[in-house]
Amino acid sequence: MTDPTANSPNLETLVDLMSQLIDLPIAPEFRPGVIANLARTQTIAQSVMEFSIPDEIEVAPIFTPEP
Amino acid sequence: MTFELSQADALTIADAVRSKTVSARTVTEAALAQIAAHDSKLNSFTEVLTDRALADADAIDRAISSGENPGLLAGVPFAVKNLFDVAGLPTLAGSKINQSRPVATQDANAVAALRRAGAVLVGTLNMDEYAYGFVTENSHYGPTHNPHDLSRVAGGSSGGAAAAVAGGLVPLTLGSDTNGSIRVPSAFCGIYGLKPTYGRLSRAGVFLFASSFDHIGPFGRSVRDIAAAFDLMQGADPGDPVCTLRPPEACLPQLDRGIDGFRIAVADGYFAQGGEPEVFAAVAQVAEALSAKQQVTLPEAQRARAAAYVITASEGSNLHLPRLKTRPQDFDPATRDRFLAGAMIPNTWYLQAQRFRRWYRDRVREIFQEVDLILAPTTPCAAPLINQEKMVLDGVEMLVRPNLGLYTQPLSFIGLPILSVPIRRPNQLPVGVQIIAAPYQEALILRAAAVLEAKGITAAPVVVPS
Fold it and tell me: Which domain holds residue B76?
């Protein structure tokens, strides 16, 4: 597995901006861990995003209009 | 009838209580004494409900004296992971933050179902904070220790539920499984743990983690106890939006039907690599005992695990967003950064993962046209040490915590029913094997497990912590 941060130079900026966008303050002592975790998730998500899914495949969650 | 109370399974205890060989009060007092004697070493309980348990036990004894049927689990002591609502307690879900929640006003649906059958709730059990982990090394409540080796983890996130059963404190517990949290601790502690089909058992009154994958299920030391508890908890429940409307299917009466005609295969590829030789040897042992000759390949299992990771992080973070905003310092350091990062996952990653889930489900469904049961290791290794950060698997050094669910995550991802069975390995640390079936085929799994148990391939003897 390659270093995920090597391809994600803007993750620090993303975390800072997303923190503002969703009003989720990130304390300075937690910030490096959050960035590292998001980088790890990016690496993991990459394999999902690379996969070609047919248009007919809908998302899986169950929703019923009435309980 | 004579039996050793601390070694007996739940149904043996219930038989003894119903026949007045022993009173429910005596059984409950014995369980409370076991907890008092041994839980200081295991740290599996977070709350012991002495008064409530004794009152319930007395009610069972009164019912028996009046000639009433006290139920299938009459007088059986049980305990639940502390994310199940228990009337009168705040539902901790392994957190410090939830200590300030209002106390639950009623028991979770599953807890109530077991109590209606005469089981006696004696306490609540330790877990990874908000179920986000595989080790039960909880910074607020301490680590739960493995009864087989107190220096090792019990597994997680339902670590207390597994350790309490393996250590002989109670014969039956309930836990939850999102990515492996019933199966991993069952394997590490050498007991049976059932993760039923997604939606098969109501989660009403359970503090969820990632709703797309959250299941509940029982832990026990015998296949029949697992079947009995599963049967009692089945049934539609409008309180859980994913709970199935299918009629319950009693498994306990089916256990002695054998496995003639079953098509059983070993999962190859992803599930046959990346682990210690001993876990594959365990699978081979089970395969031989069940005459499983063929192999099957679950396609894209690695990607399934990745998708499960993305969905879990995203849903878990959204659930906890209010607490992440206001009390981040009160989270366990083991979960905090992951939850914070999960709140920033782009929705296209999440949606792609959910669509992939549907694709993968369809492929695996095709495989179940050809086979009835699939075998795979539960974990890639036996229980690691408490505080162990890294391990070497198949020559590759990796972090312990994220990788214990290697073989469990791609399966709960599509809600398959799975029983982790404990392989009999005297004087060695336990390992488990997953018996996997198509959705709603729990009975087939339990019939195969009954065969393994009868042959002595699997066993879950009580281990007195020392």
Answer: 5-454
